């Protein structure tokens, strides 16, 4: 009885190879046609999510687990301690999103169906959504959250995260606008984290939410950082478009 | 979708159906043009279906003739290494022509396109056990036909040498 490998060799040898020039020309023309097909936002996110390294998620989970399980007995300070972990979440998210630029792959990414800007923001959106979901869960399940108010707890966790990402985006944009795409991003972003963790504590972490006035201060601060975040995102979009064109 | 990856598979599939390189290329490209824009979960199955239907349409337009390997051998004359390769190809073609369409399709999918058994089951719509059994039968039938073709070739060669 003939072996499978022998049959394969026999049958594959029988088949004439296609004309490579004709094949390449056809594939290129098909590729151009596919570029005009619209890709939905959800599909875009799903495509870019594949490129986020697993280590990013593993580190986020480990950080979170460390924060949640290592502070037993400190019920009243749990929210403050967990909020101090948020800048590190933002840090890993930013580094992961900037990975293409750090390794000078932006141009290569830009030659695919999506713009480099689209791919960058899609990755950031995936990471931000995952972290936001985590923050919502923390806000609901952190002990003492129901007394303080889930919304306030969520705001206190979100604020350091958003502040870190604002500073990181500003730093990353400043470095890129100097013409140095990859130098210093991996230093600038952790520096922003350190700024927020060590110097932001008085503003961000020492607010007491038992007083109703402080709760409104927290929400106002959240609204303010969201506005700044939107401005930063718009500036980054404009820079990406400038570089792309 | 990796067009290049599917292009080669569909091309080989069409080639074995129509036995003509140019025609197989045209049918392959027609398959992809018809596939474009279709939003389907299983592109490979859809591609094979389109290719199969196009080959059937082509077959109905131009019914191919069975190759008579004995006539080809006489035309080839004294056998050399290169001509041996041609004769091998003709033996394979003759053998493939004599097995049924379903068996030929299974052989192409499994041994030429390296499709996994699960995929073949979904493409052909038959159970895993049935695919396995039919592949085994197709393989042994192909082997018998190839050996018969070789025996006839050697007999003709001996006859030709005897005449000389």
Describe it.
The complex is a heterodimer of chains A (245) and B (164). With 245 residues, chain A is mainly α. Chain A has 13 helices and no strands. In chain A, 29% of the residues are buried. About 9% of the residues of chain B have low confidence. The relative contact order of chain B is 0.10. By secondary structure, chain B is mostly helical. The radius of gyration of chain B is 18 Å and the shape is globular.
Topology (elements, then pairings):
The complex is a heterodimer of chains A (245) and B (164).
Chain A: H1 4-14, H2 20-35, H3 41-49, H4 54-69, H5 78-97, H6 99-102, H7 106-110, H8 116-141, H9 145-148, H10 150-177, H11 185-199, H12 201-205, H13 212-244
Chain B: H1 3-18, H2 21-35, H3 43-61, H4 69-76, H5 81-98, H6 101-112, H7 117-124, H8 128-163
User: What number of structural domains do the residues of chain B give?
Assistant: 2
User: What's the count of strands of chain B?
Assistant: 0
CATH topology grouping of the largest domain in chain B: Arc Repressor Mutant, subunit A
Compute the number of structural domains of chain A. 1
Q: Sheet bearing the most strands of chain A, described?
A: none
Determine the strand fraction of chain A and express it as a percent band: under 5%
Which whole number gives the mean pLDDT of chain B?
79
Global structural class of chain A: mainly alpha
Q: Bin the strand percentage of chain B.
A: under 5%
Order of helices and strands of chain B: HHHHHHHH
Q: Count all strands of chain A and give the number.
A: 0
Task: Indicate the radius of gyration of chain B in whole angstroms.
Answer: 18 Å
Separation of the first and last Cα atoms of chain B:
59 Å
Poorly predicted spans of chain A: 208-213
Name the average pLDDT of chain A. 73
Question: Which word captures the global form of chain A?
Answer: elongated
State the distance separating the first and last CA atoms of chain A: 63 Å
Low-pLDDT parts of chain B are: 66-80
